[in-house]
Amino acid sequence: xxxxxxxxxxxxxxxxxxxxxxxxxxxxxxxxxxxxxxxxxxxxxxxxxxxxxxxxxxxxxxxxxxxxxxxxxxxxxxx
Length: 79
Fold this sequence. Notes:
By secondary structure, this protein is mainly α. It has helices spanning 14-19, 24-37, 49-56, 60-72.
């Protein structure tokens, strides 16, 4: 299992940020989903709430919400 992805760089989606209609959790979800789709977030990568929160400039709560959403879609496993 890979513990880190040195090339992982996440950004909040600018189009959703501009609309201000999306919650922070939705913004983080979209950022993580985009990273999965683009192959930046690889299988086995250990998602660390603190790391993702710091990278995106949000608290851990929206990161947890996003991870739960991804887990419900079976895109990540959360242990």
